[in-house]
Model the fold of this input.
Amino acid sequence: MILPIYLYGNPVLRRQASEVNMDKEELKQLVADMFETMYNANGVGLAGPQVGKSLRIFVIDSEPFKEAYPEEEIRKLAFINPVITKRFGEEYPFNEGCLSLPDIHEDVYRPESIEITYLTEDLEKKTETISGCVARIIQHEYDHIEGQVFTDHLSQLKKMIIKRKLTDIASGKVHPAYKTAKK
Ligand code: NI
Done:
């Protein structure tokens, strides 16, 4: 089922999300719905708060980066109760966008690599070291479960430049092609 996506300005995006604690069937359904919602909107990642659920969960699929980064492994994963335990390597800029902030694309600096511990959708515990695009997507999604969005990382000047765009999104003036939630 395609879920409505919550846009910038909705308080759910600013809340620190809670640990996921639901039964396996319910979790499987949520993960399936989140993937379907993400693909429908042509996203590469989607976090719980973006579908109005203040829960520590996100899904990613790096497939769209295959052509631009052929040397990287494509990962399609669900992360339940993830913890980024280390961030390392050089910080570099990458042009990010977000389904909750339609029409805004800005360079964000983040470290190259992370170490992350998480549960899979089968509640299997994993720890992995991940670099490149996939580490980038994960760090962006991880921000969402901490109540942050990518524009929080921009300079004061950049923030001023995009302020009008953010206000337009928050006041319901932006209508992306995918289903969004009413405030
Ligand atoms: Ni996002």
